[in-house]
Amino acid sequence: MKRIVLAIILVLVMAVFAGCASYDFEETGMYIVEADDALDMMSGGAILVDVQAAEDYAAMHIDGAINIPMGELTTDDPYKNMLPKKKQVESVMSSAGVTEENTLLVYDCTANMQAARVQWTLNYYNNYNVKVVSGGLEALERAGAATSTEAAVLPEAEYNCGDKQRKLLVSYDYIKGLIDEPEEGTLIIDTRSAEEYAEGTIPGAVRIEYVWNNYANDEYKSVRDLQSTYLNKDIYPEMKLIVFCKTSVRAAQAYTALKDAGFQDVRVYDGAWLEYSDLEDPQVPEQTTVPTIQDAS
Known about the structure:
Layout: H1 2-21, E1 32-33, H2 35-43, E2 47-50, H3 54-59, E3 61-62, E4 66-67, H4 86-96, E5 104-107, H5 113-124, E6 130-133, H6 136-142, E7 147-148, E8 169-170, H7 172-180, E9 186-190, H8 194-199, E10 206-207, H9 223-231, E11 240-244, H10 250-260, E12 265-269, H11 272-279
Parallel strand pairs: 1-6, 2-4, 2-5, 5-6, 8-12, 9-10, 9-11, 11-12
Antiparallel strand pairs: 3-7
């Protein structure tokens, strides 16, 4: 009997793997790093970056980690937690003692949200030499990292932003145009809670809460599990995916998950629900369907 059960499980697992492999995913595993691998990379010169607020960093952080608070890489003009200008990014990163050539391993204590937001911001300014440490501080502790209250400080450096990666960002005008004239194969994903979604969302958006990207211990799901999570919702790697939440911090967490899992075109609506609900009347969501991708083969 046990052999029969094991055989059935094996067949199901192989079916899932085969299903994921039949889709056109990009290279996977490029945006997220496991805690034990991050510690190995540090010994090779990678820089560990704690993105907590300064007071939280001072209370406890991983020994050797420098502090670049997420809040220093955002602006609240005109809405909270929006993308900062190039000069602000260069000033913050230079003061922290890093350059665009450094490998940065960013972590937080917020289910990967703040670290992913920092990653997306640096990606927008054409720095892809940055990875989110899955599970953040607690995962690093489980992997054997020591904690400290002593600040790690690097000498000031010169950080240079690259060309803006405009395909990572969408504006209110783009969202409004998409509502008026939907694009085949384009999907808006609301990463907020069920309660927030029920109070109003962007017309046509489907809800895939950011926490679905994590296991119970707040580590990101594996590539296979992330792929399955979205494929089971009829969301495919060829789609143009636009993610948002209240201020697009949770959305950035979904951006990192989707890109690490090989989804090709993932964009963040940076103005997010704060902007949209300020300019439009909230719309109570109805049951929505996911647009399909025509087979181009």
